[in-house]
Amino acid sequence: MIWIEFIILIGMILIGSQMKGIGLGVMGMVGLLIFIFVFNLKPTDPPLDVMLIIMAIVTTAATLQASGGLDYLVQLAEKIIRSNPSNITFIAPFTVYFLCLFAGTAHIVYSLLPIISEVSAKKRIRPERPLSISVIASHIALTGSPMSAATAALVVILAYPGALVNIMSICIPASIIGILIGCFSVFKKGKELNDDPIFIEKMQDPEFAQTMNTSSEGTQAQLKPGAKTSVLIFGCAIILIVIAGAFPALVPHFSPGEKTLAVNADGSLTMVTVISVVTLSAAAAMMLITKTSTTEVTKASLFTSMASAVVSVFGVVWMSSTFMHANNDTMQKALGGIVSEHPWTFAIAVFIMGALMFSQAATTKTMMPLGIALGLPPSALIAIFPAVNSDFVLPGYPTLLAAINFDRTGSTKIGKFVINHSFLVPGVVTISVAIAVGFLIGSFVL
């Protein structure tokens, strides 16, 4: 019976991922309906904690965008990328990584992809190289960012004081080393641009050739008056969340009682409460101080993407957690032995699920509780955490498609067999190295 249920689970995820947008959410609900009414599986609690975190964090990021803060950050990143075009294969991904690490979203990379493509092409560096690893860097930045829904979800799942600091202290250095090795993996990828037959053919077009041979610095749009202030407020929110995670004694405590979404059984505040209160208060401060209207926030592209993220997590995680809970004993018997002896093997399961779900937060919420049930220690789960970034395997994620479209030279592409695309090698290399380094660092940190 478990195999039939598993086929239904995977089938709903595959259909939902093809539908894009809220497809994962609605198909997740279809799967849950089948589990409840056909297989008589008892539903688990819906993933309200992750949904609340996504709403709070994305609203704050959207406020930063509406107030001009993201534009200011992008301008800073553009200056760094253009400062040393010869080394763009290394400079671009690390610039993207730290920018996304700060903002807590990979979607900010859209503003930098055309710049990376233009600078590398004019320098006759194959754009596929910096574009591919930069996209991977934007994804892996979320596993370690205190402002990302995926990291917040893992903090809630681990549920011990200092979990956020441990995640950051392991995942950030591990990801940096992973990106560095990923840069080397694409440093000589493909033919040099001047030897590429596709580029040579394109250069036969005088108009295209003129754009490739003309030096053009980006014309920076005028920033809104409160742009820098909003970045400062956003940064303060990050610091407060990290302090709350590192020093739980500083956070108010209440009388012990029943555990709720807001308060733990010991009377301490949950990270859902801390993150929601701090981030949305920061959003309010940005609106008031920079005079950014609520209408501007709700029209921001990040805010409109929130509904899709929340619905997707709602459906697919609820369906997955119901399946996992109903078959928990069977999976522990099947996987318990090998995972306990070789904890890294659990990363393969997480990687596969992440490739299907197209959501780091949803994959985290679905798979990490299973890791705890299998007896994996927090250090192992944190080391494995970067594996949730496997949404690049099937080339349908928006950041991948954007990079392909922005590369006018045609070097960044999807291969004949679909899966052999420009992002596969740097993605697998970066994540594999990050996991290996994470296990090494975790042995000292925890």
TrEMBL record:
Main location: membrane
Family of the protein in this entry: Belongs to the DcuA/DcuB transporter (TC 2.A.13.1) family.
Transmembrane domains' residue ranges: 6-38, 50-70, 90-113, 133-160, 166-187, 231-251, 271-290, 302-324, 344-363, 370-388, 423-445
Organism of provenance: Flavobacterium cutihirudinis
Record keywords, A-Z: Cell inner membrane, Cell membrane, Membrane, Transmembrane, Transmembrane helix, Transport
InterPro entries documented for this protein: Anaer_Dcu_memb_transpt
GO molecular function: C4-dicarboxylate transmembrane transporter activity
Protein name: Anaerobic C4-dicarboxylate transporter DcuA
GO terms under cellular component: plasma membrane
Matching NCBIfam families: Dcu (TIGR00770), PRK09412.1 (NF006927), PRK12489.1 (NF009136)
Membrane disposition: Multi-pass membrane protein
Alphabetized Pfam families for the sequence: DcuA_DcuB
UniProt superkingdom: Bacteria
Compartment annotation: Cell inner membrane
Keyword ATP-binding: no
